[in-house]
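Technical note accompanying the year-one report. For the benefit of new consortium partners, we illustrate the data format agreed upon in the data management plan: each record pairs a sequence with a structure-token string. No post-processing was applied to the example shown here.
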Amino acid sequence: MKHVIIGAGPAGVIAAETLRKTDLSSNVTIVGDEPEPPYSRMALPYYLIERIDEKGTYLRKDHGHFSEQGVEIVRNRVGAVDPANKSLMLDNNKSLEYDKLLIATGSHPIKPPIEGMDLPGIHSCWT
């Protein structure tokens, strides 16, 4: 069985770890489009005010955690999902086949209708 999870945030990581605990023989792959290891957006304010360093935002502190769990991390953006053929097309033009697909990409930050939100130096903090 090939499990593919789109999204390397907390939901995707917990799903992958749960699949691994319940099924040791399946392939488990997380696809995330950010170059960093899976991290917690909720920790970003603490990073910004320097209460923690970058590694403090990582969901799993051990560098080899995912490989030790038998979970592959693919760092790329999914360009298309083809449910009929059970495959994904990645932005690097590689395809990834799956038997089961979980989309755990989360949401997007909203920009509140407050005057000045579009000024230089104003950024959303997605937590």
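Partners are asked to follow this layout when depositing records. The helical segments are 10-22, 44-48, 65-69.
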